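Reopening this ticket.

The earlier resolution said the output was attached, but the attachment link was broken on my side. Pasting everything inline this time so it's all in one place.
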Amino acid sequence: MKRTLSILSLVFLMGSCALFQPRIPYQLGMSESKFLRQNKDAVISQLTNEKKVYRINKDERFYLLATFENDELVSLEEKELVPQWPQQRMMDPNDPNYDNNRNQNQPNQ
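Inline output:
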């Protein structure tokens, strides 16, 4: 009886430790259903007969594309969003057209 109780408590302790391990949100080879359970904000970006591509927004500037073929994650690709205000880049001194842009905005003398 004591031996059975000690074995059950050991199994319980080992199982509870597994709950506190970090959850991996995506891993190559994982199933599509597991991916969608762990990433509820994923939306379909591309859908063809051979593959499905899901998009996950990571923050304001980056998003992740997850490609599935035959219900298996085959590739992950991180992308950067294109700036919505290209005029801000015109004010950048590192821009080769910075002087031209600055001269266009000044009144003629």
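Reporter confirms the inline version is readable. The first strand starts at residue 43 and ends at 47. The radius of gyration is 26 Å.
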